[in-house]
Amino acid sequence: RSTLFPYTTLFRSAAAAFERVASDSAAPAELKREAETRLAQCREDIAAADLARLMPPESIAYVEINRPGDQIVRLAKMMGLVRDPGAETPASADGKPAPGLPLGPGLVFPADFNVSPALAAELKKFRGAALAITGLDDKMQKLPEGVLVLHPGDSDLIRGLLETGVQLIEPAEPIANFKTYRFHDHQNQFWLTVTKRLLIAGTKRDAVAATVERLGNPQAASLAAQPAFKAHEAERKGLLFAYVDGHETARRLKTMMKGKEAGMVAGLLDLDHLDSLTLSAGVTDDSVQIVARMNLKPGHHNVAYNLIRTAPFTGRSLNSVPNGTAGVVLVGLNPVNRAPADKSAAQGPVEVTGMDIGREIFSNIEEVAFFVLPTTTKSADAHHALPAMAAVFAVNDAAKSEELWNQILSIAAMAGLHDTHPRDIEIEGTKARLYHFHGAPPIVVVRTPERELIVGTEDAASAALRASRSHDSIRNDASYSKVLAKLTPTSSKAVLVDAGRAMQIAKSLSGGHSTSEMDMAVVAVKDLHVSLVTDEARDSLTIRIEASGLPNVPSIIKMIASQPHSTAKK
Asked: How far apart, in Å, do the first and last CA atoms of the chain sit?
């Protein structure tokens, strides 16, 4: 557990030293008393290194915040709000303070704003907090039953505020010789106990007493020792971790639901096979990450999940998504057919029927990648620039897909949506079919030798063909390389966005009327990359959200303050 709680070894070494002094008969009495106090504090710190070890084993839900100061400082550093200790505050070239944004009389948000190293160091001292829910009110009139533990760590300010503030609460009989307080209103009551290092609060006195007992007994039964909870230990490295015990939650929900409501939930969600729900969030040195996971027991019949679950994608369609793409949506639809049924044009005409529409969606299409490029093309009927966009279908039978799509677009023509007659063209040396629609850019349909069908604007289709042939696809794009490397064999859906390129598209759509605010937004998010990926395994659903290259706040303030209309210089 040293990877999760790196200070445990230090506390153990300190405890051993204090224990030697406390047991030394030759040591002065005052020194021995100090050593005994420090020894008790170290032992609590060791026991509280994992706050889940203090929680009841029957907990149905658990939330912990782990060393928030570290995470906040990392986030502030990514956004340019933290300077190195000892570094001087920068000044403008002429020696005057850098301009800022007025906030009111006598107040300004400076362009060189940063978090003081002293504040950063103080924030890092706070250890964290944890909350365990052990019971729910059937009538939902009272707060859930549970236990809360606050660990101020070495933050004397937070500890002092807590120890001072609790004195305003009605005192109660001590628990294990620790000062205890009781607060109550018409419906709820709480007990609070202040130990050597912690503040423990609970809706029942017995629950607080049991938590204090676990603090002094490392072998006591706890949530941390439960196998179902231990399985998620690797997820507890970030700022936030939340856990819901599926079995206990299902059991308690069943007692609260009756009649048709209970039957509908049982049929859709199969709560008997719900293992757990987890949520984790954290900040690394270069990104912010959120991961939500639903774990089901083998043999489940969760209809809701089965309806949204699709086959994993292989990423084959990404080979035709160009390097420089502003954004891509990738969806896996059907399992890969190991014996492709593609037909060449030499085999004669391809026939399609109405049934092939269903086969296309539920059998033929393995995956589809929809992408948008920050390049533009002029529409004949529009006065503003439109982005180049296309969908790349990785299919089993590309010849049948091509014929089907052409038939669908032909039907659209007969319905009166067509502006001119379709015609055959050539794109990058490949035969394609071109369609014109009123008020929209021309659409082309082109088949590649790699069992792919490209449907989109001519510019996008041309870029997709070049990417496929030159192997210069999104896989070589630095904006997406990290997130693509994290895809798993069960990844089924993904949304990847380069915010800087996306803002360029938004700027082009303004028809040359972009404002200074839009220009600044383009610069502010030029390095921002956002991704959302789902991993859809047989018995688990995982949703991962990640953002990197966050905007640099001081740079944004400087841009705003430098605008001619800005009042920052007045």
From this structure: 57
Cα Rg, the chain, nearest whole Å: 31
Lowest mean pLDDT among 128-142, 192-206, 520-534: 128-142
| pLDDT tens-digit map of 245-255 | 998 888 877 77
What tens digit of pLDDT does each residue of 86-132 get? 555 555 555 666 677 777 787 888 877 888 888 888 889 999 999 99
Looking at the DSSP assignment, which residues form a beta bridge with residue 296?
A: 274
User: Residues 6 or more apart from 343 whose CB is under 8 A from it?
Assistant: 350, 397, 399, 400
Report whether 88 contacts 261 (CB < 8 A).
Answer: no
Q: Please provide the DSSP assignment of 377-412 as one string.
A: EE-TT-SSEEEEEEEEEEES-HHHHHHHHHHHHHHH
Contact status, residue 45 vs residue 76, Cβ threshold 8 Å: no
Question: Going by DSSP bridges, is the β-strand pair 430-435/529-537 parallel, antiparallel, or unpaired?
Answer: unpaired
pTM confidence score: 0.85
Q: For a pLDDT cut of 90, what percent of the chain falls above it?
A: 48
The beta-carbon contacts of 79-87 under 8 Å, at least 24 apart in sequence, are 79/550, 79/551, 79/552, 79/553, 80/114, 80/552, 80/553, 80/554, 80/555, 81/113, 81/114, 81/115, 81/553, 81/554, 82/114, 82/115, 82/117, 82/120, 83/114, 83/117, 84/117, 85/117, 86/117
